[in-house]
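As noted in the main text, all predictions were made from sequence alone. Below is one such record, for Putative probable basic-leucine zipper transcription factor I.
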Amino acid sequence: DIIHLIMKIHAPLIKVKSGYVLMGSVGKQVLRGDGVLNAQFSKFYSYKLLIK
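Prediction:
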């Protein structure tokens, strides 16, 4: 079964400040990165895909 859930949240203002770490690979090369996301949103979309 595949469950696909899309949520749309509308708020006057959503402020986000978060650190993140990314890891992945391209071929045999490993890529890493980090940073800080500092943003403001008035609309927010959330997607979730579940496969069972």
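The chain has a mean pLDDT of 77. DSSP finds no helices and two strands in the chain. These features were considered when defining construct boundaries for the mutagenesis experiments described in Section 2.9.
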